[in-house]
């Protein structure tokens, strides 16, 4: 079991299912086809101080033949719950063949 979500995603092999424990997690990057399931539901926070166009809360750069599934996540604009308009996008996917969002709140 990994304590750091990003390290778990980096260590996973394409096609793996990564089960995430509930709680609050910093922004993540997915660079291969993965199925990322939060159980219980989890929150992903926008990168702190991110200007418009900067890194997204969830950045996906998988291959054209790869599928990414995100399930059970809430993407929050700020750790303190205050909406931060004009920040980075919630999810940015480039090159991903298929993206499925299941029971996610953005």
Describe this structure in words.
The chain has 106 residues and is mainly β. The protein has one helix and eight strands, in the order αββββββββ. Strands 1, 2, 4, 6 and 8 form a five-stranded parallel sheet that branches. The N and C termini lie far apart (27 Å). The mean pLDDT is 85.
Short characterization:
The protein is mainly beta. It has one helix at residues 5-11, and strands spanning 17-20, 23-25, 28-30, 35-45, 58-60, 67-76, 91-93, 98-102.
Which descriptors would you attach to this protein?
8 strands; 3-stranded parallel β-sheet; 40% strand; globular; 1 helix; 106 residues; mainly beta
What is the assembly state of the chains in this entry? single chain
Structural class of the secondary structure composition?
Answer: mainly beta
Largest sheet: 5 strands, parallel
Distance between the termini: 27 Å
Number of strands: 8
Please trace the helix and strand order, writing H or E for each element: HEEEEEEEE
Q: Give the low-pLDDT segments.
A: none
- Mean pLDDT metric: 85
Percent strand equals 35-45%
**Radius of gyration from the alpha-carbon trace, in angstroms:** 13 Å
Give helix % range. under 10%
- Helices, by number, come to 1
Globally, the shape reads globular
């Amino acid at each position: 079991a990994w304590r750091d979500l990003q390290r778990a995603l980096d260590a996973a092999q394409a096609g793996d299912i990564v089960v995430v424990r509930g709680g609050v997690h910093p922004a993540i990057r997915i660079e291969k086809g993965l199925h990322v399931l939060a159980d219980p539901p989890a929150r992903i926070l926008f990168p702190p101080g991110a200007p418009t166009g900067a890194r997204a809360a969830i950045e996906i750069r998988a291959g054209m033949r790869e599928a990414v599934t995100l399930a059970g996540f809430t993407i929050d604009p700020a750790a303190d719950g205050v909406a931060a308009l004009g920040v980075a996008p919630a999810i940015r996917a480039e090159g991903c063949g298929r993206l499925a969002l299941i029971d996610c709140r953005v």
